[in-house]
Structures are given as C-alpha cells and as structure tokens.
Amino acid sequence: MLEWIAFVVLGATLLTAGWKVVTSRDLVHSVLWLGLTLAATAGLFVTLHAEFLAAVQILLYTGGVVTLMIFGIMLTRRLSSVHIEHGSTSRARAFALALAALALVVFGVSEASRVGYEVGGSDAGSSGLGDTQALGSMVLRDLVLPFEVLSILLLAAMIGAIVLARKVDP
Amino acid sequence: MTLFGNPWLHGFIMGVIVLSGAMGVAAYAVWFERKFAARMQNRPGPTEVGYAGLLQPIADLLKLMQKEHLVPFSADRPLFNLAPVLVVIAPLATLAVIPFGPGWVGSDPSIGLLFALALSSLMVIPIWMAGWASNNKYALLGAMRAAAQAISYEIPLLLAALVPIILSGSFRIGDIVAAQEGGQWFALWPPGPGFLAFVLFFLTSLAESNRIPFDIPEAESELVAGVTTEYSGMIFGLIYLAEYLHTFIASALAALLFLGGWQGPGPDGIHWMMLKTVLIFATIFWIRWSWLRYRADQLMSICWKIFLPLGLVLVMASAIWVHLR
To answer: Are residues B83 and B129 in contact, defined by beta-carbon separation less than 8 angstroms?
Structure first.
C-alpha cells in the first residue's frame, strides 16, 4: 500500500516535471525541472528496490549532468540577463519521436517479462538487481567486455570534445 | 540494530533527536566559531548575552526572524524563495543515514555512504539557483564559482571515499566502522594510502562545503557575500544554517570513514563519535582563521593536477592492499 502511494506521488511528480521541462520558456527553469525529473526517477528506482541505481542516478544525473548543464548556460550566455528564452518549433516531429520512444520502452518491458525478468516485483532485491555486490560482479565479470568498450567510447568522445574545443595552434 | 522495536517509531524518534541535535550544533557552532576566532585574534568575542555570550546564537536567531524578508525587484521570485529551502533539505536528508553510535542511526541502508555523498553533491544546485535568481552580478559570479568548484571537487571526494569502501568491502557505513575494529582505523592502517585518503577527504570536504581555503563562492572580500548577497532575514539564516550543517556532516563522515567512528580506547559509544566529530569540526575553524583563500584558477589547478591523480593512485594502492592481504 505504502509503495503504491509512493509510486503515485513520484509518478505524478515525474510527469509534471517532465511536462514543464518541455513547456517552460525559460531555459534555466527547464534545466531545474529536469533536475526534479531525474530525482523523481531515482525515487521510482527506490520503490523498485534498486537502491544502488537510485543513488547512482542522483549522483551522476541530478548532481553531475544538471550541474554540467548549468555550467554550460553560465559559460555561453552573458552574465547580465536572467531570462534565456527558448521554444520548440517542431512539435509534430517531437511528438512522433516521443511515441517511438514510448513504443520502444513498452516493447522492452514486455519482452523482459516474456523471458522471465519480473518487472517491478517486490523480490527484485533478492534476484540480484538491487544487490550492489551482484551488480558489481555482473558488470565487471560477465559483461566486462561491453563495459570496457563503453569506456573507450567515452574516452573517444572526450578526446573529440577537446580537439573540437581547442584553438588551432598558430 | 534499532533502539526501539517498531521501525516507524524508531525513525520518528531518531529523526526528532538527530534533527534537533543538528540544529543545536549548528547554532552553537556559530558561537564556538566566533569565540574561537576572537581568541585567535586576541579579543574576547561575544560576552554580553548570557554567561560568556552563550545566549548569543538565540539572540541572533530572534533578530534574524524579526527582519523583513526582501525580494529584489528584478529577481526571479519563485526561484529566489525556493532556493534557501532546498539548500537545507539536502544536508537534513543526509543526517538520516549518519550513524552516531551503535544503533544510533535513522536508517543504515546497504548504500548508506553512496546516499550521503549523492545528497551532498546535490547541494550545489540550490546554491546556484540562489545566485542566479538574485539577478545580481556578485551573486551570479559566486554561483558560477560554486558550480565550477562543486563539479571539480566531487571527483577527488568520491575517490577518497572509495578507499574505505574498498578496504571494508561495503557501502554500509555501519560495516565500514565495524571493519576498523581493534584500533585499525583507516587513517592509520594500512599505512600510507589510508592516511593520505583521510587528508584528501578532509580537504575536498572543505571545498564541497565552501570553507576556507576553498570558499571562493562566498569570498566576502571580493564578491560582497557571493550567492547570499541579496538575501536577508531568516531566509539568509537558512543558507547559513545549511553551510554549518554541511560542514558538520562532512566532519562526521570523516570520523566514521577514517577514524573508527564510535570506537575508541575504552568503552565504545556515542561519546567517541561526538568527540572525533567536534575535533574535526574545530580543525576546520582553525584552518579558516589561519589560512588564506586560494584564487579560482589555483583552486582548479590544485584539484585537477594534484588531488585527482592522488585520488586515483590511492584507489589503486588500496585495491592492491586488499588483493595482497
């Protein structure tokens, strides 16, 4: 019962905040609403007994990515104006993309429950997803190759960003 | 590990005890800091209100509450009013997972340390919000420095916190304390990485809670009062309170992770934890009143060129230690 109340409250927060991210005219407000969206997602992870994922979500997304976005705003705009207006011009395309993303998520969840993962089950903690140790050995033992490939991808992206941002030597 | 049978009752009673205790500590930390600074500068400090000025924090609080709540005309009103409230929420929520003695904890989840560090990394968003919403150039400069500093110093802070995690093999703060049983405090044992990680954690915590020598977001001699420039009355008091709470939590975490928490020579208990926390807390004030402030660019080069490589080496060293043990 309690988890149900938490789910409804967090879900409502998530949807409202997500809606405000795309409808806010002020860029700063959008970024702050995005922070709330990501925090509410972490709350949903907790109700699904994935505490590690929730903490990492807050640490990396709410604490890291939102701070980076804020930093980006501060670096690209003049310091004197508070309001940075932004808007969307291609609502139809955005709607189509959102529908496609929804279809992908629905497909993924139904496929996962078909092959046997219980979605949102209360025993997710014992099945290994909430357990930090199990998660660690899964990522660094069974899935170590894709994990390392991902890190190389991130390294390449970082080097690329440095090359793009760097002024050409005379 | 609960003092009271019912988890709801336990959570409620611990919440009341810990929160009121932390508020009291924050209020008297101000008195302590003023006295401490005064004695270092050869003057008496507050003496008038109560014995040795002991009622000064209460007088200050009453004064702050009576002051008018001003919102600048060009400020972003909702953000301006929301920011100080959010600033206090993160440290108060962190207190839920900080154990002060065996069983003296709101909740000790398996990811306790990660939760505490994640919440302390959130502090910068409302601080930045306050600076941005003020629409004042000094506040905005302070906000920008806060964002830059938080995003840089978070990485060495996490690396330093990883050392006790690797040595004890757990994210649970209770387990980390238990792993230091018998005087094997991580600051002393293993020799080398443990002590350096303690120093690194302490220094990066200073930066995360914006204390001297890393207080460039406030920098009263160059930025008026940084992000708090436009705030007045109790809403300013909230930001001030959050800063003291954050420093207190950082001291408590350092004591738990590296100094054996509530363990000590003689009987274990909450008294050891309080003693260690207060000593670290006092050291932070001591540094504040004897050190200079770094420049913003020096701050960045210290972080990226010294702290970050040091953190990586310490993590490797502790992993090798655990492997060979």
So the answer is: yes
Residue A63 and residue B122: Cβ atoms within 8 Å?
yes
Range of the domain at A36: 1-87
A51 touches B at CB < 8 Å: yes
Q: How many domains, in total, are found in chain A?
A: 2
pLDDT averaged over every residue in chain A: 79
pLDDT value for B172? 82
Nearest CA in chain A to B112: A55
**Segments forming the whole domain that contains residue B81:** 7-324
CA distance B93 to chain A (A): 13
ipTM of model: 0.77
Residue A60 domain flag: yes
Q: Considering the domain boundaries, does residue B16 fall inside one?
A: yes
Residue position matching structure tokens 């050190």: B291
Q: Considering only residues B59 and B226, tell me which one the structure prediction assigns the higher pLDDT.
A: B59
Summarize pLDDT for A36-88 with one digit per residue, the tens: 999 899 888 888 877 788 888 888 888 888 888 887 777 766 555 556 666 66
Residues 6+ apart with CB under 8 A from B282: B32, B36
Q: Do B122 and A51 touch (CB under 8 A)?
A: no
- Are the Cβ atoms of B118 and A67 closer than 8 angstroms? no
Residues A80 and A141 placed together within one structural domain of the fold = no
How far apart, in whole angstroms, are the C-alpha atoms of residue A62 and residue A41? Answer: 10
Task: Establish if B20 belongs to a structural domain.
Answer: yes
Q: Is residue B286 part of a domain?
A: yes
State the CATH number of the domain containing residue A3. Answer: 1.20.120.1200
User: Domain for residue A48, yes or no?
Assistant: yes
Tokens 């703060």, residue located: B173
Q: Are residues A61 and A8 in the same domain?
A: yes
Among B120, B125, B230, the residue to mutate for chain A (most A Cβ within 10 A): B125
Whether A143 and A67 map to the same domain: the answer is no
Do A4 and A59 lie in a common domain?
yes
Given A28, A29, A55, which is nearest B115 (Cβ)? A55
Taking contacts as CB-CB distances below 8 angstroms, the residues of chain B near A52 are 110-111, 114, 171
DSSP letter at A58 equals I
User: Angle at Cα A87 formed by Cα A81 and Cα A90, nearest 5°?
Assistant: 160
Helix (H) or strand (E) holding B167: helix B137-168
Q: Dump pLDDT digits (tens) for B164-203.
A: 888 888 888 888 888 887 777 777 777 778 888 888 888 8
From the list B79, B118, B151, the residue facing A58 with the nearest CB is B118
pLDDT at A18 exceeding the cut of 70: yes
Q: In the prediction, which pLDDT does A103 show?
A: 93
